[in-house]
Amino acid sequence: MASDQFVYRIRGGEPVVGHLTALGAKNFATKAMVAALLADTPTQLLNCPPIGDVVITHSMLEAIGAKIHADGTTLTIDPTDITSSQVPIPDSGSNRIPILLLGALLHRFDEVAVPVVGGCRIGERPVDFHLMAIEHFGGTVTTTKEGYVARRRGRLRGTQIRLPYPSVGATETCLFLGVMAEGRSLIANAAIEPEIIELITLLRSMGAVIFTSAGREIVIEGVPQLLGTRMPILGDRIEAASWACLAGASDGDITVSGIDPNHLGNFLAHFQQVGGGFELLEPRKVRFFRRRALTPTVVETDVYPGFSTDWQQPFAIMLTQAHGISIIHETVYENRFGYLKALNELGANTQLTTHCLGGLACRFSNQNHEHSAIIVGPTPLTSDETMITIPDLRAGLAYIIAAAIARGTSYIRGIHLLERGYGDVVPRLAQMNLHIERVLR
Ligand code: EPU
Predict the structure, then answer these.
(1) CB atoms inside a 10 Å sphere around CB 118
(2) Which EC numbers characterise this protein's activity in its record (predicted)?
(3) Residue 373's beta-bridge partner residues?
(4) From the alpha carbon of 195, which atom of ligand 1 is closest?
C-alpha cells in the first residue's frame, strides 16, 4: 500500500529514552549511486538506507540500463550496460538527482536528457549553477518543458569555475564533470559538507585525482577512465542531530550509534549552549541528554561548517521548551519555516518575519521571504487527536519530535515526504519508549 495512505499516530509527553543506530546518509547514498555511473566496472555501496530517495534513484538508474543488485543494505551497481541517455521520472516521483545525472552521464554520451528536478518545496531551488558548470566544461544545455538536455562535442575540457554560492549540488556536478574532463579544473567557492568530502573519497577510490585545500577550492586532474569501487555510506549526521534534539526536547536520554561526532561539528556547540549534553561512548556511539533547564539562543543556518539548514527544524522544536526568546535566521533556503504554523496548533508560540534577525543581512534581505523565526518558550505542547500535515522531509521528523513531547495523541500525515529521507522510523522509535504506530488514515 502506498505510504500516503498511512499516518503516524503518536502518544507523547514522556521523556524518550533508549538506543538507536543512525542509518546511511541520504545525501551521500544517492550521490554515490550517481558516481557509480562514471566507472567502467561495478561499484558496491554498503549501508545504503532503506528510504524513498534511494528507491527513486534506483529506478532512474535501472531505467537507463544500469544493473542493480540489492542484498540487504548493500547495493551493487553495474553501469556497463547503460544504453540510454534519456532519464525518465519514475512512478514514485522525482528528487534532486536528475540534475546530477546530467553531468555524470555526459562523459558517456554526447547528449543527455533528464527530467525536471523534484525534492522539497523549501524555496525556489534553481539549477542555474549546474547549467553554468556544464557550459564551463564545454557542454551546452537546453531547457525544455520536460527538463534539461545537455550536449557536448568531443571530450569535456577542464576549466576554472567560481560558484556564486557554495552549493552542495553544483559542487557535485563540478566533481562529476571534472573527474574525467581533459586536463585540470579548479572549483572555487565549493561546498565542503562532510558528504562532499566523502564523495571526493569515493571518486578518488575509483581512480580520480582530486586535491582539496584549506579554502573552498578543489583542484581536479582529469583522468580518462574510472573503475568501480566499494564503500560504506557514512552515518546520517542530520538524523543523528534530530535524535539529539528529541532527547533534549523530551528531557530524555538517547544513544546514537553509527555516527562520527566530528560530522556534527557546530551542532554540538549549539546543543550544549542551550542546555543539551553529550557523551562519547565509543568511536561511533554518542549519548545525548539534557544537562540543565533549556535556555534560549540565536542560531543562523549556513553552509558547512556552519549550522546546517537541515538541523534547524528539530532544533526549533527543542527551543519551544527553552526559557526565553530564541531566534533562528535561515540563510540557505528562503522558505523553510512552513512547519511552524502546525507547531503553533500544538501550543508553540512562534512568529515569522521577513527581516534578517540575529545576524548579518543574508541573500534574502529586503525581499518578502519569511526566513527568520522567533520562538518564545517554554510552551508545553498538547494534542487532542490533532492531525498535522508534513510540508517537507526535515519538517517531518521535527513533527515526530513535537508529537513526542506533546501530551496526548497526535496524527501526522504526508509521511511519504518523511519516508523519502528516513528509513525504519517507526520500528526504531517504537523500540525506545515512544508510542508510535503507522496506521491507515
Ligand atoms: N542554488 C542556486 N542555484 C543552483 C543551486 C543552488 O541558487 O544552481 C541555491 C539554492 O536555491 C539554495 C542554496 O543555493 O538557496 C543551497 O543549495 P544547494 O545546492 O547547496 O542544495 P542542494 O544540493 O539542492 C543539498 C541537500 C539539501 C540540503 C542542502 C544544503 C541533497 C539531495 N539535498 O541540496 O538537503 O539542505 O544541500 O546543505 O543533497 C534535505 O535533505 O532535506 C535537503 C533539503
Answers:
(1) 17
(2) 2.5.1.7
(3) 328, 352
(4) 39
Determine if ligand 1 sits within 6 Å of the CB of residue 121.
Answer: no
| DSSP-assigned letters across all residues of 210-276 | EEE-SSS-EEEE--S-B---EEEPPB-HHHHHHHHHHHHHHT-EEEEES--GGGGHHHHHHHHHTTE
pLDDT digits (tens, 9 = 90+) for 271-306: 999 999 999 999 999 999 999 999 999 999 999 999
CB 364 within 8 A of CB 335: no
Domains plus CATH for the chain?
3-23+235-440 (3.65.10.10), 26-232 (3.65.10.10)
Residue written as grid cell 538508474: 61
Per 3-state DSSP, the chain is made up of helix, strand and coil in percentages (nearest 5) of 30, 30, 40
- Which uninterrupted H or E stretch holds 352? strand 349-353
pTM of the model: 0.97
Beta-strand relationship, 230-232 and 43-46: parallel
Q: How many other C-beta atoms lie within 10 A of the C-beta of residue 274? A: 24
Atom of ligand 1 nearest to the CA of 304: 38
| For ligand 1, mutation pick of 125, 136, 307 (most atoms within 8 Å of CB) | 125
Q: Whose CA is nearest to atom 11 of ligand 1?
A: 125
The sheet with strand 218-221 has its strands ordered as 160-162, 184-188, 218-221, 209-212
Q: Which segments in the chain show pLDDT lower than 70?
A: 1-3
Distance in angstroms (rounded) separating the CA atoms of residues 206 and 324: 51
C-alpha–C-alpha distance, residues 98 and 441, integer Å: 32
Q: Is 386 in the pocket of ligand 1 (CB under 6 A)?
A: no
Q: Name beta bridge partners: 43.
A: 77
Kindly state the cell numbers that stand for 294. Answer: 533549556
Catalytic residue among 48, 120, 174, 362: 120
pLDDT at res. 441: 80
The answer to whether 286 and 256 are in contact (CB under 8 A) is yes
